[in-house]
Amino acid sequence: MQLILASTSRYRRELLGRLGLPFSCVPPQVDEAILPGETATALVARLALAKARAVAEQHPDSIVIGSDQVAVLGDSILGKSGDYATACRQLSAASGNRVVFQTGLCVISSVSGQTQQAVVPFTVVFRQLSAGQIDSYVRREQPYDCAGSFKSEGLGICLFEKMQGDDPTALIGLPLITLTGMLQHAGMPVL
Asked: pTM higher than 0.85, yes or no?
């Protein structure tokens, strides 16, 4: 059976590579727009499932992993900033606040038809950040392709007062603790 990551994310690819299993990446063709009234948890669950399904339909005899992530600050969903100004605005809003990352995960076995889903939360409490600190961070790391505009695996760790959650890899975009259990259940043990 082939293992496929339904993603174009280099961060998810790097995380899955840690498990030492051979896999391929296939870009899912999924509309990622938020539905009216959709919560962050419902959004990431729906998109992780949609990504996994889209790829599983094209690849029989596979186990397909889909994942999606958003950052939530108060009632606002923070996506990928895409540029310097937006990254600075996101980090200014996060300064001194708690941001909850919701990471949706789905594993589909196209052989058995079994679908497993989870949403894994991870919370980051930001330090009080000055405009100068934010500018320095954004210019140095350019985290424009990351939800919430930071990379915890890099210099972004300096932005935090504390982190709370069961799986630190969920913060990067693919919760490996949950995933290894799902892969075991799907007949593809990691160890």
From this structure: yes
Considering only CA atoms, which of 181, 183, 180, 141 is closest in space to residue 159?
141
Instruction: Return all residues near 8 (Cβ < 8 A) that are at least 6 apart.
Output: 25, 27
Residues assigned a catalytic role: 68
Q: Considering only CA atoms, which of 46, 50, 186 is closest in space to residue 110?
A: 186
User: pLDDT tens digit string along 146-188?
Assistant: 888 998 888 999 999 999 999 999 999 999 999 999 999 999 9
Which regions of 74-129 does DSSP assign to beta strands (E)?
76-78, 98-109, 115-126
Max distance between CA atoms of the chain, in angstroms, equals: 54
> Where do the domains of the chain lie, and which CATH numbers do they carry?
2-185 (3.90.950.10)
